[in-house]
């Protein structure tokens, strides 16, 4: 038997919540990176350095949105999980449009791929829940 102290903070989450939690942490990490060391992130992407404030504002927004995803995951807000699937899948199309028509570098597609992979992971986890595959805390806390 284990005490509550032995379990990780997200041990009681469903599989779907865990996917959204991980996505939230990803957004927070990316956002903080853009806020604190934006040119390091841009260099990895092969994008020109900038001293404009917009990149740090984007980092702040990503950090805040990531925090919302973490809260949604911790509270099993499945309506948010479902809504996030289409939104996250759409990013790859928006980025493709920017590459084709707005002179964005193709490397930005990596963010669309990451979002799409996360969205498909969430969709699969939600589908498992509907199919009767155990996904919640009851599968983790056996006496």
Describe the structure.
This protein is mainly alpha-helical and 143 residues long. It has one domain (14-131). The chain is 67% helix and 0% strand. The chain has five helices and no strands. It has helices spanning 15-36, 38-44, 54-74, 78-101, 109-130. Helix 1 (15-36) packs antiparallel against helix 5 (109-130) and helix 4 (78-101) runs antiparallel to helix 5. 20% of the residues are buried. Residues 1-8 and 137-143 have low confidence and may be disordered.
Give the ordered list of helices and strands: HHHHH
Number of helices: 5
Number of strands: 0
Into how many domains do the coordinates divide?
1
Largest sheet: none
Classify the beta-strand content into a percent band.
under 5%
In which range does the helix fraction lie?
55-70%
- Computed CA radius of gyration, to the nearest angstrom: 18 Å
Low-pLDDT segments, ≥5 res:
1-8, 137-143
> Distance between the terminal alpha carbons, to the nearest Å?
6 Å
Which descriptor suits the 3D outline?
A: globular
* Average pLDDT rating: 87
What does this entry show, briefly?
This protein is mostly helical and 143 residues long. It is built from five helices and no strands. The chain is 67% helix and 0% strand.
Please outline the helices and strands:
Layout: H1 15-36, H2 38-44, H3 54-74, H4 78-101, H5 109-130
Helix pairs in contact: 1-2, 1-3, 1-5, 4-5
Jot down its keywords.
disordered N terminus, 5 helices, 0% strand, 143 residues, single chain, disordered C terminus, mainly alpha
């Amino acid at each position: 038997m284990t005490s509550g102290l032995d379990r990780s903070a997200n041990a009681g989450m469903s599989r779907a919540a865990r996917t959204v939690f991980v996505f939230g942490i990803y957004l927070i990490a990316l956002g903080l990176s853009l806020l604190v060391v934006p040119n390091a992130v841009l260099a990895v992407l092969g994008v020109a350095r900038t001293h404009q404030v917009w990149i740090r504002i984007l980092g702040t927004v990503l950090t805040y949105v990531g925090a919302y995803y973490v809260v949604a995951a911790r509270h099993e807000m499945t309506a948010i999980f479902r809504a996030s699937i289409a939104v996250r899948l759409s990013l790859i199309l928006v980025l493709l449009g920017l590459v084709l028509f707005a002179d964005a570098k193709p490397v930005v597609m990596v963010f669309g791929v990451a979002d799409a992979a996360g969205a498909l992971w969430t969709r699969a986890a939600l589908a498992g829940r509907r199919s009767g595959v155990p996904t919640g805390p009851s599968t983790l806390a056996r006496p």
